[in-house]
Amino acid sequence: MRFRTALCALVLGQASAQTYPGNLSAGHASIRYFDVVSNDPVARLQQKLERGKATLDQQDDVFGALPSLLQLLDVRQDSQMLVFTKTSFQSPRIFPRNPRAIFFNDEVTVGWVRGGLIELAAIDPNIGAVFYLFEDNKLTRREDCLVCHQGPATLGVPGLFVGSSHPFADGKIGRQGAVVTDHRTKFEERWGGWYVTGTHGEQRHRGNAIIPDPAQPEAFETEMTQNLTTLNRKFDAPAYLQPTSDIVALMTLEHQTQMTNMLTRLNWLHRMDANDTRIDSGVEELAAYMLFTDEAPINGPIKGVSAFTKTFADRGPRDAKGRSLRDFDLEKRLFRYPLSYLVYSPQFDALPAALRDRVYRRLFAKLTVQRKEIVEILRETKPGLPDYWRN
């Protein structure tokens, strides 16, 4: 078997200040990651294609089946983000003048390189991220992707991650490795190795920049790196499905990746041993993360340049007052109502009932004191909410 790793979104090493839990066994009798038939959107699409209930249009000379795959998986093109570091098995093709495009929705992530292949990852509610490659006109599940996608950066379970690195002009990463990022990461430490389009005032990030001199591995270039609304001077942006790498999409994906990893890890721990003492701290950490307790402050306003900010929020659901957990703030924080929209996800609902109840109780204890609006939204929009939330 050729050794491949798909959708390695940046991280080859972690900063020494970060600590992560160890790997859980994917082959455990209660998990059987490699044996179970996955129930994720890509697997379901694969079944439809095999049965002739769906058809891929592969007539595009440049993008091949990419537009058709995105449409069939309900992944919008305006979610596009661009990473230019060599952190995929397609690394020879990736460099600042030819970045890799990544698209996503709540359950699916799709990667594409000009002149290369299409990589996909989808979330199975019980086993976490499952990886696929679209090659020779078919989707193939790839288990060797866990070389990159089960480890410290994914909390020890199959998952996805976003990272910030120190990239050189050829797209290689400096020996500092990279830092896994999410909504808790300081703004100025994010997006090294990514292109970023959007405005963000005086706040500075590491995006759109390389390290010009390898002898000074901490010295990012400073010209034309902040508040960019076009990438035309960086590479041939019009040659992509979108000419953007939206800042709001990046911030959303950062939150989403670690949220899904936390859900997977907690699910696995409980199924392996419901009395595992690590579950207590896992429940507390998940509840805090879902509530954006340690969110890094935003000194806004932040504004994307694609339609993502609108189309993401339009997916709802909304209560009678028109409020949704998907509504952005982007002045002081990411979301207006800070409870993760992934509370609606199949992955959250797939938590074992006793475990899910523990999470609900921790959320409720915090929300009834701090955030009345969020409780009101959930009462109208979340099926299966425990009765005590409605009293």
Structural class computed from helices and strand pairing: alpha+beta
The general outline is globular
Number of domains: 2
Overall average residue pLDDT: 92
Give the CA-CA distance, first to last residue: 57 Å
Low-confidence runs: 1-17
Strand portion, in percent? 5-15%
Number of helices: 9
Order of helices and strands: HHEEEEEEHEEEHHHHHH
Largest sheet: 7 strands, antiparallel
Secondary structure: helix percent: 25-40%
Number of strand segments: 9
Features:
391 residues, alpha+beta, 2 domains, two-stranded antiparallel ribbon, 9 helices
Description of the molecule:
- The structure is a single chain.
- The termini are far apart.
- The protein has a seven-stranded antiparallel beta sheet with strand order 6-5-4-3-2-1-9, sandwiched between helices. Strands 7-8 form a two-stranded antiparallel sheet.
- Helix 4 packs antiparallel against helix 5 and helix 5 crosses helix 8.
- It has two domains: 41-247, no CATH class; 250-389, no CATH class.
- It is α+β, with helices and mostly antiparallel strands and 391 residues long.
- It has helices at residues 41-50, 66-72, 146-149, 247-272, 278-290, 308-314, 346-349, 353-370, 372-381; strands at residues 81-83, 100-104, 108-112, 118-124, 128-135, 138-141, 162-167, 173-181, 194-195.
- 45% of the residues are buried.
- Residues 1-17 have low confidence and may be disordered.
